[in-house]
Structure formats: structure tokens, C-alpha cells
């Protein structure tokens, strides 16, 4: 579950229902290059803004906002692992070891340094599957008894 900013101000709560990731790596000119592809599916749980969820364009815009937010979160975690912790907590070295064993043997001894300078490409693909019964924000109109 996470929140994204609504294009019109306010927040939208998303419930992540499925995630999948694919990590591939190669070594180019002695430098590790890692490609991380993340796919996620989410449902809209709560809307705190004035937005029309019946429009496909609105859903697509929310998907783009989600993709950008999640990519930034992953990039921040990666930067922290590379620069602050100096530790391959994501297992990228193992990916290289399995996919390119000969090249891995050449850089294994320097992996800690190589990891800090590795190029990591992150791509996030988000799909919003259901808006549930939520089509309008509770803030849209006045409720009176």
C-alpha cells in the first residue's frame, strides 16, 4: 500500500496486489550494467481529491505517477546501498555470476568497488486494475443528513 499525489492536489491510496521483477546483468568494458524491470498491479483504495476515475486518461496518468514514484524509491534505495552501505543487498553480483560466469570470475575480487560504480537501469511498469466502487472522491460533494 502506498500513496501517490493526485494531479489536482490531495492523495490517492493504492493497494498493491501483485509485483514481479526481472533482473538481468552484463559486464561492458569491465563495468557491471544491471537492468531491473519491475511490474506491479494495484487497486485504488482511497481518493482524497477531486478526480474522475471513470476516464481511462485519468487512470493512465495515475499509472505514470505511480511508475515515477516507485522508480525514485528504488533509485534512492540503490544509491544508499551503493554509496552509504557499500553492500550488494539486491544480489546483483549473483545475477552476474549466473549469467556470465567467466566475466564474473574476472571481477569477483573487486565486486565491492565494481558494485559501487555499477550502472543500474530501473524501469517500472504500473497497472491500476480496479477502482472498486470508488469513482468519486468523498471530498467532491457535501453530504448532509
From TrEMBL:
Name all Spore germination GerAC-like C-terminal domain ranges: 4-132
> InterPro entries, from UniProt?
Spore_GerAC-like (IPR008844), Spore_GerAC-like_C (IPR046953), Spore_GerAC_C_sf (IPR038501)
Which terms under GO biological process does the entry name?
spore germination
In Pfam terms, one family for this protein is Spore_GerAC
GO CC terms, sorted: membrane
Protein name listed in UniProt? Spore germination B3/GerAC like protein
The scientific name of the source species is Paranoxybacillus vitaminiphilus
Q: Tell me the classification of the organism that encodes this protein.
A: Bacteria, Bacillati, Bacillota, Bacilli, Bacillales
Amino acid at each position: 500500500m502506498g500513496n501517490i499525489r493526485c494531479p489536482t492536489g490531495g492523495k490517492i491510496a493504492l493497494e498493491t496486489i501483485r509485483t514481479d521483477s526481472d533482473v538481468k546483468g552484463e559486464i561492458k568494458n569491465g563495468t557491471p550494467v544491471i537492468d531491473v524491470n519491475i511490474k506491479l498491479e494495484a487497486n485504488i483504495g482511497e481518493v482524497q481529491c477531486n478526480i474522475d476515475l471513470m476516464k481511462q486518461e485519468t487512470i493512465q496518468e495515475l499509472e505514470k505517477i505511480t511508475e515515477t514514484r516507485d522508480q525514485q524509491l528504488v533509485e534512492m534505495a540503490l544509491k544508499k546501498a551503493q554509496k552509504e552501505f557499500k553492500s550488494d543487498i539486491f544480489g546483483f553480483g549473483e545475477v552476474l555470476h549466473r549469467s556470465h560466469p567467466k566475466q564474473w570470475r574476472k571481477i569477483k575480487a573487486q565486486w565491492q568497488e565494481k558494485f559501487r560504480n555499477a550502472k543500474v537501469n530501473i524501469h517500472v511498469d504500473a497497472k491500476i486494475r480496479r477502482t472498486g466502487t470508488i469513482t468519486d472522491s468523498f471530498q467532491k460533494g457535501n453530504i448532509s443528513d
